[in-house]
Structure formats: structure tokens, C-alpha cells
Amino acid sequence: MDIKQMHYFISIVETDFNMSQASKILHVSQPALSQTIAGLEKNENLTLFERAHGRLQTLTPAGEVLYQYAKEIVEKYDAMIEDLQQESAHLRGSIKIGIPPVVISVVFPEILPKLISSNPEIRFEIKEAGAVELKKDLLLQELPIVVLLRPTGLDLGTVEEVVIRKDTLSAFMCKENPLAGKEKLEWKDLHNQPMAIFDSTYMIHHQLMNKFSSLQVKPQLYLQSASWDLLLNVTRNSNLITVLPTPVDYYYFSPDVIRKEFESPIYWEVVLCRRKQKRYSRVEDYVFNYMRDYYKA
Fold it and tell me: Which residue ranges does the record assign to the HTH lysR-type domain (predicted)?
């Protein structure tokens, strides 16, 4: 005797021995239900129902005993399954995520607290580094999830990329800078200008150097740094110009620094990346999908 047989038996009793109604509730055919009950009685050598003219009328004494025990067993079984499902749905574990500092400051200030507070059993480790280093960590399988900038240079056949933010790069400078009076900048305006930019571990560095090379623009690179807030701060009391993602302007305010857009801007596309695999850990899959869906909404 198994749980399915007991469940079928209980349904027949609770529909007042109406086989047609019980079969509809159970989503099985009436012949299949009849065969299941007949098999139960035969295998257990029991007569569970009183019958008249081929129809079920009531329970036999053996049927009464089975009904009482079956109700209790099925209720406990259902409770057990529910508890197991809840336990399996309760995510536990740890996850490492790589995010560039400027991205974590302007793209992730809202999602990370929500993600962490709603999953107290997951331990998050965030690595802040440039896109070049994070790309290497992803390929070496040291980080399961990283946030990079396009173009990533990754093979889309082996890596899944999801765009979560698209914006532009802007110039930031002191309001006294000679270029501050222009409505918009052209890249040639930066020729021979003193600049502070991200160092070569950051994708923005390579985007800028490629742009400068293609237009034969030669700025004076006085400072290269991995710190976006340092790059901003050095423009406050000098003629240094830096180029950063436009959203930085929404999170950083200084009356001494202004932002200028470019006529033909470089686009800043932030992508969520992971290696393509047949299977992912439950925690990794949950976190990746949570982040993807959050920015898709």
C-alpha cells in the first residue's frame, strides 16, 4: 500500500463514494481510479467498500479502520513534503562577486543591501577591482560572477553576458577650467590638456586610450589611479580633467566640479557575467538571476 493508493481511497470516501467526482478531483480517469482501488483490495486481501449493483455504498469495518489511519498518514506525509520543500528553498552558502569600484558606487548602492538583508543565510564576498583583473578571475574560475564593461572581449559561446546599465562617459573638471564654458566637448578639446584617468587595470582606461589614438589626440596624463574619488577630487583645485561614467554626477556633488558631455560620447555598458555551465549551484544561480531581474524590471 502506498501514499497514492491511500490518497485515492480518501478522495472516494470524501466525495460520498462518487467515483466520477473523485476522479475529476484527482485528475485521473474513472477506470484508472477503479483499477487502483481494486488492486489495493486484492493486494491487501481486504474488502474496503460495501457494494450494491456495482456501485460503492459505504465502508466496511476494514475500510473504516483504513480511512482513520490513512487520513493521519497522508496528512503527516503532506506536512513532511511541505517542510522539506521549505527547507530546500531556504538558501544557504556563500558567493563571491567581482565588481569594479566605480560600478559598485553608482550602480549597486540599492540592490546590494536588499540582496544581503533578504538572504541572511548567504555570505557575500565582494571583490573590488578593475575589469581587466575581474575578467581574468572569471576565466580562471576564481569568481563565479563578475561585473564588467563592454566590450569585454569574452567569448559569448562560453560566457553569459547581461547588460544591466547603459550610459555614457563624461568629462569632470574644475568650474574655473578654460573648457568649462563649452556646452559640450569634442575629444580634440582634450589635446595637450592635463588629465587624470583610470589606470590600465580598468576598461575605461583602454576605451579612452583607443579613442585618443584613433583621433590622434595626445592629452598630458599627469595621474593614473584606480580610485575614482581621487580622480574627481584632484580636479577640484587644479586644471586636471578626468573622464568618468556620467552617473557619478548623481552620487557625487561638489560646487567646485562640473560635468561636461561629449558630442560623440563613449558608451558605458555595464554587464553581468558568468561562465556558461550545465549546472550552477543554487546560490550562484539565485544571485545571478536576482541581479539580472532587478535591473530588467
Answer: 1-59
